[in-house]
Write a structure and sequence with these properties.
It is a single chain. The chain is α+β, with helices and mostly antiparallel strands. The protein has a single domain, classed as Hotdog Thioesterase (Thiol Ester Dehydrase, Chain A, Roll), CATH 3.10.129.10. The strands form two sheets. The chain has an eight-stranded mixed sheet with strand order 1-2-3-4-8-9-10-7. Strands 5-6 form a two-stranded antiparallel ribbon. The chain starts with 5 loop residues before the first helix and ends in a 5-residue tail after the last strand.
Length: 197
């Protein structure tokens, strides 16, 4: 049985996603191919579908807390660059907290790769959920295929593989500045149904 390229799977499902999904926190605005930027000042350089300009990325990442207490997602220092229904792009510059020591110098820790992927896939699922629902990660599997070193900028491309009513499957490719694949990761999110508002 031939394996199918994950990007082709994501492409084949995107048309369904774009026509059926209601973006979280922007539920009354129809999806549009036009691109804009998030309205939130802290994320105003994040490109997004025009229907997502009012999306509250801060609340999605840190919850309702106005004090921004320390949490893993904040510590990871993920920079979100693009939010679309079925596709999220982000980047991170590797700092000591992302790395582990080796005889050749600090390199990206495999656990960091998984945490980055699950965080980005979580945001991607929130964008596809109804306003009352929320995703939780239930499975993360990754293959680390090359090293990344302290100080390198990595790009995370998160694309939808499958969208069901109770789960989403995402493929997250982490690449270095030259486009070399560092890790490829699959994330499954269960969708917890909330009360209808």
């Amino acid at each position: 049985m031939a394996l199918q390229d994950p990007s082709s799977l994501a492409t084949s499902t995107k048309s369904t996603v774009l026509s059926t999904a209601a973006p979280n926190l922007a539920c009354t605005t129809p999806a549009s191919p036009a691109m804009s930027y998030l309205q939130q000042e802290a994320f105003s350089d994040c490109l997004c579908d025009a229907s997502l300009v009012a999306f509250d990325l801060h609340k999605c990442l840190y919850g309702d807390s106005s004090t921004q207490e320390e949490c893993l997602v904040k510590a990871l220092k993920i920079h979100f660059e693009e939010l679309r229904l079925g596709l999220v792009k982000a980047s991170v510059v590797l700092e000591p907290l992302h790395c582990r020591p080796t005889p050749i110098g600090p390199i990206l820790h495999g656990g960091t790769s998984l945490a980055l992927a699950e965080s980005v896939a979580g945001v991607a699922s929130v964008l596809l959920c109804n306003c009352s629902d929320h995703p939780v990660g239930v499975s993360v599997t990754g293959n680390h295929v090359s090293m990344a070193r302290l100080g390198q900028k990595l790009t995370l491309n998160c694309s939808l593989v499958y969208q069901g009513s109770s789960s989403h499957l995402w493929n997250v490719d982490i690449q270095d500045e030259k486009g070399v694949l560092v890790s490829t990761i699959r994330v499954t999110n269960a969708i917890i149904k909330g009360k209808k508002q």
